[in-house]
Amino acid sequence: MHRTLLCAGRESTYAVIERVLDEVTELFSSPWIHLGGDECPWDAWSNCDSCQTSISRNNLRSIGTLQYLLTQQVEMTAASCCYRYIPSAKT
């Protein structure tokens, strides 16, 4: 598994995810999408200033809560692209 992650603390990450899902919509006709994330190594976010700032600014309890919020945002974006989200084990 690659240790580099999308930064959950930057708004630009959510725009990238939206663009990727728009592209995927054009490529695949299935109404289902699985985005993974349950195997996400949190050490990158633990050492990321943007993620730590987001945790503090939003009064989040942990990196796990930050991942939960990222997953929820991706799920809503997927739903707006007419996908039904298949949740991961941790969500």
What does this structure look like?
The protein is mainly alpha-helical and 91 residues long. The chain has one domain. It has four helices and two strands, in the order αβαααβ. It has helices at 11-27, 43-46, 49-57, 63-80; strands at residues 32-33, 84-85. A two-stranded parallel ribbon has the order 1-2. The longest helix is centred in the C-terminal third of the chain and has 18 residues, at 63-80. 18% of the residues are buried.
Features:
mainly alpha; 2 strands; single chain; 4 helices; 4% strand; 91 residues; two-stranded parallel sheet
List the helices and strands and how they pair.
Elements: H1 11-27, E1 32-33, H2 43-46, H3 49-57, H4 63-80, E2 84-85
Parallel strand pairs: 1-2
Helix pairs in contact: 1-4
Structural class: mainly alpha
Number of domains: 1
Q: What is Rg?
A: 13 Å
Shape: elongated
Give the spatial strand order of the biggest sheet.
Answer: 1-2
Distance between the termini: 19 Å
Q: How many helices?
A: 4
